[in-house]
Design a protein that fits this description.
alpha+beta, six-stranded mixed β-sheet, 14 strands, 15% helix, globular
Length: 220
């Protein structure tokens, strides 16, 4: 099934499907759990539009990995083009918020990092960004103090507030747009808190945004 952006309230969303701009190492506890160095500026990488799939579709772990990790993240839907944005422009560009998984093939990523190579094979494969319908901004008035939660097979795996981000949502939009234009339909993933771990076939997932919006997912 071809992915299309949708709003949680059922209203029409005519934004095209664009790139996914991701932020790595944006929560201190996650940096510590992977023993990564603390960044001095946002760590950015991009997933293509083909990485997006509805959270309701089965998650397919690629055959070429043995270590596919969950990374639960606040997703931001861009509604208008921004380039070299100021703070007000960044805020006005947001069409909605969702919750997503930045699926990461940890074994592949480790091998690439050891060779000093980019991460795309570990991060940008088809279906590597299962994503929920988007909540309109008015229905999520405090995105920078919003709870992200992931349960796997009924057990809490990730549970943290977005207030603990190192680099904040609108600051990230300002920063990103200083390097490349963000277009309508692009998505920003804002980083994952601690609790990443391997997924396996048959896992049942429940993702919760702000304690009010719940989305179920499963691993094929």
């Amino acid at each position: 099934m071809k992915y299309k952006h949708v709003f949680h309230d059922g209203s029409a969303c005519d934004l095209p499907v664009g790139k996914v701009v991701c932020v790595g190492r944006n929560y201190v506890d996650h940096i510590k759990e992977l023993d990564n160095p603390m960044p001095t500026e946002p760590v950015l990488f991009i997933k293509p539009a083909t990485s997006l799939q509805s959270i309701s579709q089965p998650i397919v772990i690629p055959e070429f990995t043995r270590d596919c990790h969950n990374e639960t993240e606040l997703a931001v839907l861009i509604g208008k083009a921004v380039s070299r944005a100021g703070r007000k422009e960044a805020e006005a560009a947001v069409a909605g918020f969702g919750i997503a998984l930045d699926l990461t093939l940890r074994d592949i990523q480790k091998s690439l990092k050891e060779k000093g190579l980019p991460w795309e094979k570990a991060k940008a494969f088809d279906g590597s960004c299962p994503i929920s319908p988007f909540i309109k901004s008015d229905d999520l008035p405090t995105p920078q103090d919003t709870r992200l939660k992931l349960d796997v097979n009924g057990q809490v795996r990730q549970d943290e507030s977005t207030k603990l981000m190192i680099h904040k949502i609108f600051d990230l939009i300002v920063y990103m747009s200083g390097f490349f234009t963000l277009l309508p339909g692009d998505v920003i993933l804002t980083g994952t808190p601690a609790g990443v771990a391997a997924l396996k076939s048959g896992d049942k997932l429940m993702l919760s945004l702000d304690g009010r919006f719940d989305f179920s997912a499963s691993v094929a």
